[in-house]
Amino acid sequence: MSVVLNKFYDNKKGYFHIPVVWREEFQFQIGEKVGVDVKDGIIIIDKMNERRFTPIIGVKGRLTIPIEIRQQLKSHTYQLIAVQETEQFILTPA
């Protein structure tokens, strides 16, 4: 099941905060590396270290999207979706 969250990513800022409820659900820890990649304009975030980028989850769940991905994005605002089956976060154009 996918859950559309009331959280948005502003590509101008370059970061967003993963809600604590979903960090706990997917067992994403502060200081942990996560996999980040972009496919067809959609950003995928999960625990797969085989992804192109592996940023670290910062304080309060802050995650910075790598500049290489930000430069590829066409939209400025993305909505956060939690995909429970695959334990992924997806950012889609809002």
Helix content estimate: 10-25%
Q: What is the tally of helical segments?
A: 2
Low-pLDDT segments, ≥5 res: none
Give helix and strand order, one letter per element, not per position. EEHEEEHEE
Our Rg estimate from Cα atoms comes to: 12 Å
Instruction: Please state how the strands of the largest beta sheet are arranged side by side.
Output: 1-6-7-4-3
User: How far is it from the N-terminal to the C-terminal residue, by CA?
Assistant: 20 Å
Please identify the structural class as seen in this structure: mainly beta
**Oligomeric state of the chains in view:** single chain
Major sheet attributes: 5 strands, antiparallel
Protein name: SpoVT-AbrB domain-containing protein
Organism: Fictibacillus nanhaiensis
